[in-house]
Amino acid sequence: MSYYEFFCPVKVIAGQAALEHLPYEFSSRAVERPMVVTDKGVRNAGLLDKVLSACEEGGMDITVVYDDVPADSSKQTVTAIAKEYRKQKCDGILAIGGGSPIDTAKAVNILVSEGGDDIAQYAGSGVLKRPLKPFFVIPTTAGTGSEVTNVAVIADTEKEVKLPFASGFMLPDAAVIDPRMTLTLPPQITAATAMDAMTHSVEAFTCLAKNPLSDAYAAAAIKKISNNLLKVMEKPDDAERRLELAQASTMAGIAFSNSMVGLVHALGHSLGAACHLPHGLCMSLFLPYVLEYNLEEIREPLSELLLHLAGPEIYAMTPRSQRAEESIATIRKLRDDLHRHCGLPRTLQETGKVEKSQLDRIAQMTIDDGSIMFNPKEASLEDARAVLEKAWA
Per its UniProt record, what Pfam families does this chain match (predicted)? Predict the structure, then answer.
């Protein structure tokens, strides 16, 4: 590649007691009345209390909390939160949660910074032209990487489509990575979100816009996930390994923000929209099948990834000509292990929520998804349909 750009200005605050640094971050941006955007799951798990207590100890009393973000956020939710932000005279946003609360908070920040009530008018790439309000993120899953990405997706429930937003101005001022925030993740969510990060990394390492810097982040993330995911499944309260997965998610987010993704995401976005399945699960479902589809175009980088997926011994023992296939086999084995641990589906049929009659519609939506532009192998409608067929059972 003769030219590329790499951009990640997000301050990362990571490790034990990272939460306690929040008050300083607020004060550094002159934030005195932040609004917390989160969901019921975060509150019910006691995670919100950990954040509020940490802030209180640092002399910051947070009183404005919106905790009703749905799993698949919508335009209506964004509008309602923006209205409350203005009513409460807030001056910054703190998102706590997984992909939905973080994406929602990003969209809310657009509305309260730019004005208006219809987030759809800001959809697309490069629409924003100036900095937004101070924005901070505490992820509670180790998968989306949303804390360091310049994108968000919000559902338009009336049109049954997902609106994409992309701008460097959407990046948070700081991301707080604290292992206390992921310790209570249920096994299947732990597995699905980690496979989301794995997919971000693998696609970042093999797609058309890959570059040396994104490769470094992607490879490091893959190694951390491969070394720690199954051990966390066996010992969920291992804070050190939980932190490793959380850091991997952040690294993967930095990687794909600068290299883009491909057909796995195009298929996953479409399946999620059509069948309302979690994004991480969709990524895990399609990853090996898309790698097989792209194989001849990505043989060299996929062969290189075997070192990070399986370790130096297996890499050295595997003939050079078979390393790409062995990488796919290693990912398949990881999915099988996760299925045994927590029942994470490996095929569309195993989800119990996808009808075969829906595959044609999902294929059509896939071809219209922007992520497909960066896939290393061009995909037609028939190609997308064929991958869906392979992923069926």
Answer: ADH_Fe_C (PF25137), Fe-ADH (PF00465)
pLDDT value, residue 157? 85
pTM: 0.95
Q: What is the mean pLDDT of residues 293-309?
A: 98
Give the span between the Cα atoms of 78 and 107, in whole angstroms: 6
Cα angle: 16, vertex 141, 220; to 5 degrees: 75
The whole-number average pLDDT for the span 160-166 is: 85
Structure tokens at 105: 């908070």
Dihedral (CA of 95, 111, 69, 372) sign? negative
Q: Which amino acid would we find at residue 202? A: V
Mean pLDDT of 281-291: 98
The residue-averaged pLDDT of 281-300 equals 98
What are residue 35's DSSP bridge partners? 64, 93
**82 CB burial (10 A radius; 0-12, 13-18, 19+):** buried
Cα–Cα distance for residue pair 331/62, rounded to 1 Å: 43
Residue with tokens 């976005």, as numbered in its chain:
269
Distance CA 96, CA 170 (A): 16
Helices and strands counted in the chain (H then E): 15, 9
With beta carbons less than 8 A apart as the criterion, state whether 29 and 139 touch: no
Which of 78, 68, 76, 142 has its CA nearest to residue 105? 78
- The rounded percent of the chain whose pLDDT value lies above 90 is 94
- Tell me what pLDDT residue 2 has: 80
Domains of the chain: 11-180 (3.40.50.1970), 187-392 (1.20.1090.10)
